Design the sequence.
């Protein structure tokens, strides 16, 4: 591989062709160079601080049936739960005490009033208990504009809604064919979130059956142009109790899905140097050092799971999700070590708003 050529492909505006070249890199030394370039880009633009988001998976009740997801409504093997308000508040206090600057409340998608008002009341209770010292991110799927605006007004500053696959044709293949799973509605929801003032995040799954390299290139271009300030992308991980499982024979091996995810993170960092990029749990699922590798490739956020242990194992999105039975122990020195080992610093007690948003 010609070194000069490689450098040129990583600089200047990243066109479709350049992205393709980078995504298809196969030589380990070339991939290492891309990853190093992305890490440098992060360090010289937003710095090497990694922000912590305590992830609380507060309910696995879901009205939808995404074909890839273990907690889809039709999976009757899942024991459904909603974490009690007291336990959610305890988890939020845990985050505050352990100097995480923010939490993420994630759940299945429901749009009934009981659910949406419950979130509203939780937002108020958490802010009250933590003295408004935590940023709160919601990840509760598609909702009406009215609901999004109410949650924003009650102090949810951020929202994560992955587009999952930016190609409508691919989207159709991984979702049931009905109004409840419409690509256009998801896209509109993303736009509504941005217009409502949220620091909005999106993302895709990488290594899905039927997904092509061109799809992934277009995913990166979609993310770049969508106006989001945060991104969470992770490898697709199969789950035996889902319809998509029958296509597992089409998947790349796990280590290739990890490699592809790391390339996606690195290229996105070069395209959008100041956005927040999470190193995801799914990455850690396919490689025990996955999150560290993500940070080395330019990510700057990790989301330790602080769901109360009683419920954790039922939030089973995909196979092999780590630490399902452990108490949260990703605090203090343990987390400091994870982060400093990859040459980063911990943003203790910092909100870590995206610099792209502040700008
Ligand atoms: N219900 C909400 C949030 C919870 S699901 C929503 O769907 O937006 C959170 C994320 O988990 C989804 O956005 C999806 O990208 C991811 N996910 C679900 N099943 C997965 C799988 N099998 N492999 C990898 N990621 C998966
Ligand atoms: Fe429900 Fe989200 Fe899973 Fe889809 S991905 S089935 S909306 S929890």
Sequence:
């Amino acid at each position: 591989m010609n070194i000069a050529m490689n450098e040129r492909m990583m600089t200047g505006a990243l066109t479709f062709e350049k992205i393709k070249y980078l995504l298809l890199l196969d030589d380990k030394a070339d991939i290492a160079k891309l990853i190093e370039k992305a890490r440098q880009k992060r360090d010289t633009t937003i710095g090497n601080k990694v922000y912590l988001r305590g992830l609380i998976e507060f309910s696995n009740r879901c009205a939808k049936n995404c074909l890839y997801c273990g907690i889809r409504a039709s999976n009757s093997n899942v024991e459904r739960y909603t974490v009690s308000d007291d336990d959610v508040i305890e988890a939020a206090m845990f985050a505050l005490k352990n100097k995480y600057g923010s939490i993420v409340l994630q759940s299945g998608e429901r749009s009934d009033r009981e659910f949406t008002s419950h979130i509203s009341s939780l937002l108020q209770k958490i802010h009250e208990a933590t003295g408004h010292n935590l940023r709160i991110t919601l990840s509760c799927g598609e909702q009406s504009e009215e609901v999004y605006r109410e949650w924003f007004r009650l102090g949810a500053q951020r929202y994560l809604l992955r587009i999952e696959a930016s190609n409508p044709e691919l989207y159709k293949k991984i979702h049931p064919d009905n109004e409840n799973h419409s690509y256009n509605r998801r896209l509109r929801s993303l736009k509504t979130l941005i217009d409502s003032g949220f620091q909005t995040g999106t993302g895709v799954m990488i290594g899905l059956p039927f997904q092509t390299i061109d799809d992934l290139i277009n995913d990166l271009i979609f993310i770049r142009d969508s106006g989001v300030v945060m991104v969470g992308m992770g490898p697709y991980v199969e789950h035996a109790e889902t319809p998509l499982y029958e296509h597992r024979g089409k998947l790349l091996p796990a280590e290739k899905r990890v490699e592809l995810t790391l390339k996606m993170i690195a290229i996105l960092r070069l395209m959008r140097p100041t956005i927040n990029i999470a190193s995801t749990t799914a990455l850690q699922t396919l490689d025990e050092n996955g999150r560290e590798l993500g940070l080395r490739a330019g990510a700057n956020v990790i989301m330790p799971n602080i769901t109360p242990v009683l419920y954790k194992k039922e939030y089973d999105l995909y196979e092999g999700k780590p630490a399902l039975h452990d108490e949260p122990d990703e605090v203090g020195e343990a987390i400091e070590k994870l982060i400093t080992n990859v040459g980063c610093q911990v943003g203790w007690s910092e909100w870590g708003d995206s610099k792209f948003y502040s700008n």
